[in-house]
Write a structure and sequence with these properties.
The chain has 482 residues and is mostly helical. The protein is built from 18 helices and no strands. Helix 6 (118-133) packs parallel to helix 8 (165-187) and helix 15 runs antiparallel to helix 16.
Length: 482
Amino acid sequence: MPSVVGDGASTLVSKIVSQVVQLLIFLVAARVLESEEFGLYAFSSAIVVMLVVVAEGGWGEFVMKAECTERELDQIGTISIIAGVLVTIVGLLAAAAAWLAFGREHEALLLALFSCWFLPSSLYAVYDGLLVARGMLRKQAVIRMLSEVSGLCVTMLGLWLGWNVFSLAAGRLVSQLVSLGASAIVLGWRPQIHLTWAFAREILEFSSHILSNRLIVFLRSYSGTLAIGSFLGLAEAGYYRVAERIIAAFSELIGEPARMLAWTLFRRATLVMNGEGRPVRDAGSSATVFMTVLMAVSTPIYLGLSLISADLIDIVLGDKWAPAAILVAILSMKQVLLTPGYVTEALLSLSGNIKRMPPTLLLNALVSISLILVLAPFGVTAAAWGQCLASLISFLTSMHLQQNYGGLRWGKVIRKGGYVAIAILLMATAVYGLGYLAQTVSMRRILTVLLQVVCGGGIYFGTLWILERIAGDRGSVLSIRQ
């Protein structure tokens, strides 16, 4: 047990370090680069990430799913090298076309630099899976932290030297090379080129399932940046990506703990037995309470972010990113509607209905992509509102799955939501009032934001507490105890 706890803690620390490093790079790059340069990076990196997804296949997951002999590992390594080389050729051909056919030398050089990332990424997927399969999670965490810090140093040095957008690509490449090199040293394994047709077919069949799921997630995540960059230009793509990244900084802090807690609490609920060895309650009742708490905690964070978005962007990124403020406000509302989806996988898995989730994910992805393609030509704000509509459909499909196949009682969640609505209304009134007062007395923006956050949060949770006491409910909105 201590070993498991230590492995989990080291993995968590590595994820925190990764998030901090990526957020720091984002903030510095957004301040140093112009909006078009940042948009170029966002647009090109979206294309590159898609190619990385293809290059990584599902080699690491194949290693993790079963014990592999040394000969089988060699074959997995071989196919990962082949995939990496093929995707690298595709990237270099695209760079050559950009240079020769369209005369975009700057973009071509950036794409060529990114193309050096594909082969190391494909091969590292095997090493990463092997580290997990052999239970070397602490060493894996150290390797990830070392690679992130190395990439950070190269990126900051490049920005200081004036490499501009190329410094970001160079940092990503160095981070990947450090991960690959350190993993090879720790594992002491080098793939020998060997591949049989029967084993290749088995790997590719497995890879097709992993790849299809990842491409759906990719298209859902990056379709906005790609569509806006294609229809409206790189500057608008930069604004949109900045807004997405600010929202992601908060959603990652809420989403990951929510998923882990959902698995833990729902599984515990399904294991409660009576004297005859039968469950006395299912995950649905636990999920109902958990969803009530999750929405009560997350909703004021996102809506509060939308209220202070203009001041926050000015403080963190500077006035050149002011056009992104309205996008942050809109996408914050979108994220409120996506929050219930954090618990769907755990709830359906434990109720034996996980097979119903992939078709729903595909439907939601198609709706999101269709709306971004239709609305992007009308402007970046229209595209953001389109994603709000897509998230509403996602919310309704999540509600349907959770209620009909997971036992979550949304009627009870919505009734409790009345308290949340009243508290949010009072919070918003206080935040607006403080903002107006701060402008009147010429208060510094950073002090204004801090005052709004503290007072708004205090009023929100204080209002919930008072309403609970007046109503005399035994189960508090802010308590996950049954």
